[in-house]
User: Which sequence fits this backbone?
């Protein structure tokens, strides 16, 4: 399984492997996460703050997952837990907008421009029916990518209302 496979599956289903919005915090599946400082200061019942496992974040509300985020840093090497990206300790984190769009089209995953998050040097799409949002931008100064004039995927996320 490749990173692009994981991203397309997430876009189609709103799930990443066994992870989905509504489930209880998945530390038994993922190992102990790095809680947001608000969890450390206020305790586990504080809502809306993420637990992180490298490039994966799970936002927790009322002790259930209310958001799933995959954060990428174009031009770098990133990690995801094995339950999310099996047999991969790390991966190249640069995914061009055109590559993801082509993969979604090939998988027959409908997507629309997200006008709220499309402006300036940023663009965004939302997939249907899973309502997963992908946000792209032009590379920043510190990002070493081969195509400085093309949009790279920065993050994909799904959240419940």
Assistant:
């Amino acid at each position: 399984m490749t990173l692009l496979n994981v991203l397309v599956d997430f876009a189609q289903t709103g799930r990443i492997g066994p992870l989905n919005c509504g489930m209880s915090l998945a530390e038994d599946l993922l190992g102990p996460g790095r809680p947001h400082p608000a969890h450390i200061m206020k305790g586990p019942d504080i809502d809306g703050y993420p637990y992180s496992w490298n490039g994966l974040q799970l936002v927790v509300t009322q002790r259930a997952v209310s958001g799933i985020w995959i954060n990428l840093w174009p031009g770098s090497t990133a990690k995801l837990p094995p339950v999310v990206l099996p047999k991969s300790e790390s991966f190249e984190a640069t995914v061009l907008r055109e590559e993801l769009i082509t993969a979604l089209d090939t998988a027959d995953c409908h997507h629309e421009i997200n006008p709220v998050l499309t402006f300036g040097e940023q663009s965004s799409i939302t997939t249907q029916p899973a309502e997963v949002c992908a946000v792209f931008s032009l590379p920043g100064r510190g990002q070493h990518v081969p195509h400085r004039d093309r949009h790279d995927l920065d993050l994909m996320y799904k959240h419940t209302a």
Observations:
- The two ends are 30 Å apart (CA to CA).
